[in-house]
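pipeline: protein-struct stage 2 | run 1193 | PorT family protein
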Amino acid sequence: MKKQFFLSALLALAAFSSQAQLLKIGVKAGLNYANFSGTSIQTDAITSYHAGLVSEIKLLEKFAIQPELLYSTQGATYKTIAGDIENELGYIAMPVMAKIYFSKAFSLELGPQASFLLSEKNKLDVSNSNTFDFAIDAGLSFKITKSLFVQGRYVLGLTEISPNAESKNSVLQLSAGILF
């Protein structure tokens, strides 16, 4: 009986240990270079930031799913006769990336992103922005060590930022992070 219990405990520990290697959780932060696309008004990009939680679920040797929960600021500066007007939008972004590994360190990331508007800072009282933004993300990731990584990603907004505008978010992201 003791041998069976010991053997069962050993197998359970081995199974838990192998599962722990399939799931990694961490944090990441970085810079956004954001602008609006599809607008008839001339805009300039703003530099902002993103930060949050990241996880990686390894499904196959060369394939993983990477869900994230980020706070991301995006927007643009409008050029007007009266001067520049900056519009900054703060989102909770939830990208779910499919990661295809080319090597142990280098991977391609593709996937959808749903974002929910939390704040809007602008120097001009304009109509409110849509509270939901849907985008497609694509990028590259490089693991410096087993835990440290850097990423470059482009976020292409598919929904308009406001009911009265044809503008969509367009963001280039550079990130660094650590997985535990």
